[in-house]
Amino acid sequence: MKTMPLSYWQAMQARGYSRREFLEFCSYAAAVAGLGSGAFSRVVEAFETKPRPPVLWLHFQECTCCSESFIRSSHPVVADIVLDLISLDYTETLQAAAGHQAEKCLHDTMEKYPGQYILLVEGSVPVKDDGVYCMIGGRTALQIVEEAAAGAAAVIAWGSCASNGCIQGASPNPTGATPIHKLIGPPVINVPGCPPIADVMTGVITHLVVLGHAPELDSQGRPKSFYSRRVHDTCYRRAYYDAGLFVEAWDDESARKGFCLYKMGCRGPVTYNACSVTRWNGNLSYPIQSGHGCIGCSEANFWDNGPFYQHLASFPGFGIESTADTIGTIIGVGAVAGVAAHAVSTNLRKRKLIREHIDESVRGPSGTGVSNPKGGEPR
Amino acid sequence: MSRIVVDPITRIEGHLRIEAVVENGRITDAYSSGTMIRGFEKILKGRDPRDAWAFTERACGVCTTVHALASVRAVEDALGIVVPKNAELIRNLMFCAQYVQDHVIHFYHLHALDWVDVVSALSANPDETSRLAQSLSAWPKTSPAYFTAIQQRVKAFVDSGQLGIFANAYWGHPAYKLPPEVNLLGVAHYLEALAWQKELIKIHTVFGGKNPHPNYLVGGAPCSINTDEVNAINTERLALVARLISEAIDFVEQVYIPDLLAVASFYTDWAAVGGGLSNYLAYGDLPTRSYNDPASFKFPRGAILGRNLSEVHEVNGRDAEEIKEYIAHSWYSYSGGDDVGLHPFDGETEFNFTGPRPPFEQLDVDGKYSWLKTPRWREHPMEVGPLARLLVGYASGSTEIQEVVNDALGRLGVPVTALFSTLGRTAARGLETRLVVHWMKEFYDELIANVKIGNTKTFAAELWDPSTWPADAQGVGLSEAPRGALAHWIKIKDRQIDNYQLVVPSTWNASPRDAKGQRSSYEEALLGTPVADPEQPLEILRTIHSFDPCIACAVHLYDPDGRLVHKLRFC
Questions:
Q1: Residue B113: which of A96, A175, A295 has the nearest Cβ?
Q2: What is the per-residue pLDDT for A374?
Q3: How does B348-375 read in b/e, with b if 16+ C-beta sit within 10 Å?
Q4: Is A38 touching B (CB cutoff 8 A)?
Q5: Is A126 domain-assigned?
Q6: Considering A290, A312, A334, which residue would you say is the last residue of a domain?
Q7: Torsion angle, alpha carbons of B532, B535, B536, B539, to 10
Q8: Are residues A49 and A102 in the same domain?
Q9: What is the mean pLDDT of each run of 10 residues along chain B (571 residues)?
Q10: Is the Cβ–Cβ distance between A108 and A89 less than 8 Å?
Q11: Which candidate, A78, A66, A65, places its Cα nearest to that of A28?
Q12: Same domain? A162 vs A256
């Protein structure tokens, strides 16, 4: 018998939350989903009336860093969502049941809620040798994901493993590790990163649940709200790059002053992610702020883009005018005198771009998908 | 006689399958199988050794950082790099934060539901739970109103008809022994621990920029210390770390340890179940002087055989006769035959999947049946993990370890032999958390003392440039991951990785039998375990979870020549 799930508001009432707390949660949910204040009433309405969707979380070739990141989500009410306010019917990491009882949870939801459940996939799927490199309950990952995806209302690929194959897909990819979007039909929402930022993960889910459709995606299937800016373009150390002030060696005087890490191999210039804006673990820091360059962990094939401590030779333009769709993951690893050239090339044109960019970051651009001050649907 | 298959084992990291033979209500034989591989070591060949920490860190995101630490130590050992004292302290702080966070998550979110019946909490008297909580510790959140609210949340959850992560579990199973009031306490702290763990782990974010998977650096720590700069580790960052440590001490002393002892007191019969092997191995860790001075480790290094606590054997990761890996029951093949053992420096592996084609019901346990290799120390199967660490420390004469262990044994009224059990393993994890959380404060104080006198160095620059390296080098990095003894072996040739091997804790514990038919930890520990209802093998989960399995780490492949036995096909 099909059970009508409680709405968020009903569920929160039942858990003793006040109306005020509920509205605070809605406000936060709107913010993490990249929605402007105008969307607030729509968010409240959605949470008041929408039933809790069943959610299945599959694990394949992965290290569980995505699940760990997810539970670092910084707002306590959001943590309650993932445990209580969505119905997380299957997740090997947290569920109480094991063995065939766990498998029953998976199949019950697929049977009861065809076309209604959200499928979350953590990990890549090995396709070599009939898939014997990842087997659960005597079945291969490929058999499981094909079955589960068939009835899913939406599919999210968590992390770089599911989005682009990540480390097991690095050369020579011994097990034929394959990202999810290459195995099942579109659309798959790719949320890359090793792992993705907790608040980005909850932000994507919130967008999906509140608005009832996928966030606007770029050509690589990534939500534009979190992946349309390069780490470099929003980095708080960007000014040092522009001024030609670089760390030359670990823990040197420049490192102690927090200069730009470009020469130490930082991949910020070729990495599309929200790290320098959203930052990590409750907006506390991100790799560059703590002194190590970005290793580009949200970019496809980042493991094979040259040694991490060899700096990028050059990258197209100054980037502000470029987008993820046009640049992708182009990367050069040869030693070129590009840095010195750059240091003297700071010119009026770039200053103007930077100024505009900073204004953009503050205000939120129109039509770029980074945020939507009008509060309407992104599309 | 019946065969129970539990696959997937949930509330662990990775993919683990247990097949157990049950006769007259007890397990008479068991088989442990890792069912996923990725191929790390093959991927590492030819890479820059300084990058290896980032690759190997991705072996596991639950025990994140532990492989990064073992990796930078292996490279530093190979090249003769000695890191500055501050880098050692920062690594220790990150190590301690990982232990405390990981052990708390294990106890409350992975293991507790084996002992705590969530549904039973509905019939608790919140006033009684409040009285109980206040008798256990000074933790402030203990009012009747607080526990009433928690109970109402659980009730609403159950009434909704959507049980989510609590669906289809073994609620009401006769092996659950806690009174409803203790179950309610457990549920409340399940939620509190979930909210708290994300705070403590910010120590990683301060020093490593993010968690999971913070950054490490061969030769030191990537962060610089500068108290005159907002862009470095300054007094604001250090004050945050101090607060997090202080809160961690409170949580461990006032919540985790009292809960552990309260729950354990209802399950003392499990001090006679799940003992398993009688050999214990620890590489030791937490250097107080230097990693190159094992005598200074907080956790001593050594091996115990036959539960003989009067003798601790020396352990040497470089000795070709000590640690070897076997593949008699693993889906690999060796060029010299499948019955030999190979030291990690000289290991070789080729895929050789001989199992049933999926979908299948049972594994062929007479042949190969796991993607895990089988490591042995001087041919002995060894248990690794918190229990092994405490026993080696206890037997080595560490007074700190002896005091904490004796205190807990006294409070539970059980002898030291009670540690050789499922309950002992779970208790050991909590007791070492208590040690580690206070050690974390010691390391922090030492870091502050260094900064106070102007010693802020975090990196040894001399051997960073590969042009300073010898043409060939090899090294081993030993560590203690939360789940036990962890080591990486590296061979460097022409400034590139020529060979890289990981032997990780869950490989020791979860591996299949060796060529002699000796069982490893999981299989041995399951022998004699009672199973009240084969349809609901709660008892299997208790013993397996007491090891805190971490299977993504445990499975690896390594092929020095890039050979594959199978012709590869894409479906």
A1: A96
A2: 27
A3: bbbbbbebeebeeeebebeebbbbbbbb
A4: no
A5: yes
A6: A312
A7: 50
A8: yes
A9: 92 94 96 93 93 97 95 98 98 98 97 96 98 98 97 87 89 96 97 93 98 98 97 97 98 98 96 97 98 97 97 97 97 94 87 94 96 97 98 98 96 92 98 98 98 98 97 97 97 96 95 96 97 94 96 54 28 23
A10: yes
A11: A78
A12: no
Interface contact flag, B231 A289, Cβ < 8 Å: yes
* Cα R_g (chain A), whole angstroms: 22
Active-site residues of B, by number, are: 13, 60, 63, 67, 483, 506, 550, 553
Domain count, chain A: 2
CB B354 within 8 A of CB B368: yes
The answer to whether residues B36 and A60 touch, using CB atoms and an 8 Å cutoff, is yes
From chain B, the residues in CB contact with A237 under 8 A are 231
Q: Tell me: the pLDDT tens digits for A141-171? A: 999 999 999 999 999 999 999 999 999 999 9
Q: Could you write out the DSSP letters of every residue in B27-55?
A: EEEEEEEE-B---HHHHHTTS-GGGHHHH
Exposed, middle or buried by CB within 10 Å (0-12, 13-18, 19+), for A321? exposed
Claim to verify: residue A223 and residue A284 sit in the same structural domain: no
Tell me whether residues A129 and B165 touch, CB distance under 8 A: no
User: Other CB atoms closer than 10 Å to residue B321's CB: what's the count?
Assistant: 11
Name the nearest CA neighbour of B10 among A64, A72, A174: A64
Beta-sheet strands, E only, within B185-246: none
Which amino acid does the sequence have at B162?
A: Q
Place of tokens 């700071």: A346
- CA quadruple A289, A295, A299, A300: dihedral, nearest 10: -170
Residues A301 and A186 in one domain: no
Q: Are A92 and B8 a contacting pair at CB < 8 A?
A: yes
Other C-beta atoms lying within 10 Å of the C-beta of residue B63: 28
Q: Does A6 touch chain B (CB under 8 A)?
A: yes
The pTM of the full predicted model, rounded to 2 decimals, is 0.89
Q: What is the dihedral of CA B399, B401, B406, B412, to 10 degrees?
A: 170
Examine the domain organization and report whether A220 and A241 are in the same domain: no
Q: How is residue B220 annotated by DSSP?
A: B
Burial readout B449-477 (b: 16 or more C-beta within 10 A, e: otherwise): ebbeeeebbbbbeebbebeebeeebbbbb
CATH number of the domain enclosing A298:
4.10.480.10
- Say yes or no: A62 and A104 in one domain: yes
Among residues A202, A227, A252, the one where a domain terminates is A227
Rounded to 5 degrees, φ, ψ at B184 are -65, -40
In this structure, is residue A278 part of a structural domain? yes
Judge if A275 and A210 occupy the same domain. Answer: no
A109 domain residue, yes or no:
yes
Q: Are A253 and A292 in contact (CB under 8 A)?
A: no
Q: In this structure, are residues A252 and A259 in contact, taking their beta carbons and an 8 Å threshold?
A: no
**Residue in the block written with tokens 């182009």:** A330
The CATH number that applies at residue A110 is 3.40.50.700
Rg (CA), chain B: 24
Facing B552 at nearest CB: one of A64, A86, A88? A64
Considering only CA atoms, which of B182, B166, B188 is closest in space to residue B113?
A: B166
Tokens of A48: 């008041």
- What type of residue sits at position B481? A
Pair A239, A203 in one domain: no
Pairing verdict, β A188-191 and A152-158: parallel
3-class state of residue A350 by DSSP: helix
Residue with tokens 């049946």: B369
In whole angstroms, give the CA distance from residue B309 to residue A189.
55
Joined tokens for residue B355: 């199992």
Taking contacts as CB-CB distances below 8 angstroms, the residues of chain B near A287 are 208-210, 215
**CA trace torsion A139, A143, A147, A148 (10° rounding):** 70
Tokens at A90, concatenated:
């299957």
Helix/strand/coil for B288: coil
The verdict on residue A334 lying in a domain is no
User: Domain span at residue A47?
Assistant: 8-227
